Structures are given as structure tokens and as C-alpha cells.
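User: Teach me something about this protein's shape.
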Amino acid sequence: MPNEIFTWYWFFSVIIAGLLVNLVSVYLKTPIDGVLSKLSSRWKRQVERKMEQHALIVERYVNDQMLLTILVEERSRMEARACFFLVLSVLAIILSNIEEVRAISAIHILASMVFAIGGFFNLLLSTNTGKIVRDVKFCRILAAEEKESDSQET
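Assistant: First, the predicted structure itself:
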């Protein structure tokens, strides 16, 4: 086996394989670049659209204190619900390890997975809501700094 490297047919097969790979890559490069370019531009448009939507949402919350209060309450509720689901998930796992209820441990494991998914989903929603609250606070801080600098100039 180690001596096959020095045979003429091994060198010949390597050269043929290299030429074939090079030839195929020349013909496939342009279509692959086109597909990746379309995918990238579509992704970029989608990100820009989401950023514009986020900016409109933040602007709406900057201008309305009552909506911001409701949003913060909703975020707190989502975080509490996420904690509740995760605690239920842990309790279901603990129940599945108790000898007396081992016969229905598969149900406990399934319930644990459902509760964990619910908890993580609520945590994700809470995180997205938190981003809006953070950006609203940032916009308000910037507005306050602009007012302060305008008042110092006059």
C-alpha cells in the first residue's frame, strides 16, 4: 500500500483527477456564484425590511408612554411565564425519576419537553420585546441629550 504512491498509474490518476476537478469547477463557478448572489441579495433585502419595521415599531413606542408601559408589562408577563414553564419542565423530569410513578415516566418526559419548549418560546418573545424596550430607551436618551445640547447652545 505505501509503495503505490510511487507507481506511474498513481501519478497518472492524480493528474487526471486534478484536471477533471479543475474543468468541472470552471463550468460550475458561474452558476454557483449567481445562485449565491441572488440568495445574498434576497437575505439583505429581508434584513433591511425587518430593520425598517423595527424602526417604525420603536418610533411608535417612543411617542406613546402608555404603549411602552403595556409593552414592559407584557415582557414581564412573558418572562414570568417562561420561568413557570421551565419550573414545570424540571418538576416533570423529577417526577419521571420517582419509583412509584415510573410507569408513566414517558408521559412526564414528554410533558417536560413540551413545557421546556413553551418556556424557551416565551423567553424568546421576551427577548424580542426587550430589544424594543432597549431601543426606545436609547432613542429617549438621545432625544434628551439633543434637547440638553440645544438648550446649552442658546
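Now, about its shape. The longest helix spans residues 8-63. The CA atoms of residues 92 and 108 lie 5 Å apart. If you'd like, I can walk through any region in more detail.
User: That's plenty for now, thanks!
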